[in-house]
Design a protein that fits this description.
single chain; 78 residues; mainly alpha
Length: 78
């Protein structure tokens, strides 16, 4: 997540997403509006993807305040 690219081997630092979440995000990024609904995710996977995206933005936008609506977003995505 530090460099914003997908790599085949986990980096030595701890700022990376696991393989399953990485695959979901890769599919998400190449999906169109018409095909995005084909991504089938459980509630727990949606939450993990959401948490990963928040970690990514927090890492790259140091001035970003804590997202207080995260619990609301989890409810919307579950």
């Amino acid at each position: 997540m530090m460099n914003g690219i997908f790599v085949p081997v986990p980096p030595v630092h701890g700022n990376y997403a696991n393989e399953e979440i990485t695959a979901i995000l890769a599919d998400f990024f190449v999906s169109s509006y018409d095909t995005i609904s084909n991504l089938s995710l459980t509630g727990s996977l949606r939450n993990e993807v959401l948490e990963t995206l928040v970690r990514f933005y927090s890492l790259h936008l140091p001035g970003l305040k804590k997202i207080k609506s995260l619990e609301v977003l989890k409810e919307v995505f579950s």
